[in-house]
Design brief:
Layout: H1 16-20, H2 23-51, E1 59-60, E2 62-66, E3 69-70, E4 75-82, E5 93-98, E6 107-110, E7 116-121, E8 131-139, E9 146-147, E10 155-158
Parallel strand pairs: 1-9, 3-10
Antiparallel strand pairs: 2-4, 4-7, 5-6, 5-8, 8-10
């Protein structure tokens, strides 16, 4: 079965049987797919390990407004800024925006040493509107590993 083209004993000669074998071309994509799947799985495991290192991860903060249900008119909302363990976070900026209830502009306040920000708001409802919401965002203290990426509790404004 060997001819002069497939003689591998001489340096610089080509193997004719390898060039004629179509299975090598068919097997290559399958091997690449397997290598890709194994590589992605390995990368996923490594990224999970890196995410568990405290120095590289960020901590989500949450806003807990009091009261959660209010009426239209001028009032003060006390918003506690807490981390996932329930510890209060000081020096965070709390921003209250109008949602389906209206506010004139934005209302902001900084959380004190106790982690509570007192925000003065004056929500309004439209005519024939029975309820609405105010949304709350938190800007964590500068230089901290805190973030506020998930939605916070909204304040419900109910007509009297």
């Amino acid at each position: 079965m060997l001819d002069s083209k497939s003689d591998t004993s001489k340096p610089g000669t080509r193997t004719g049987s390898f060039l004629d074998d179509r299975r090598a071309i068919e097997g290559l994509p399958v091997r690449l797919v397997i290598a890709l799947v194994v590589g992605v799985a390995s990368l996923s495991v490594m990224m999970g390990m890196i995410g568990d290192i405290d120095g590289l991860s960020s901590t989500e903060v949450d806003a807990q407004p009091q009261p959660e249900v209010t009426t239209p008119g001028s009032q003060t909302l006390d918003v506690a800024v807490v981390d996932p363990d329930g510890n209060r976070v000081s020096d965070a900026t709390v921003i209250v925006r109008g949602g389906s209830a209206r506010l004139d502009g934005l209302a902001t306040a900084k959380s004190g040493p106790d982690g509570i920000a007192s925000v003065d708001v004056s929500p309004k409802l439209g005519s024939n509107q029975l309820d609405g919401t105010l949304s709350i965002d938190v800007k964590p203290p500068a230089g901290s590993d805190f973030v506020d990426e998930r939605g916070n509790t909204e304040v419900l404004v109910v007509a009297e």
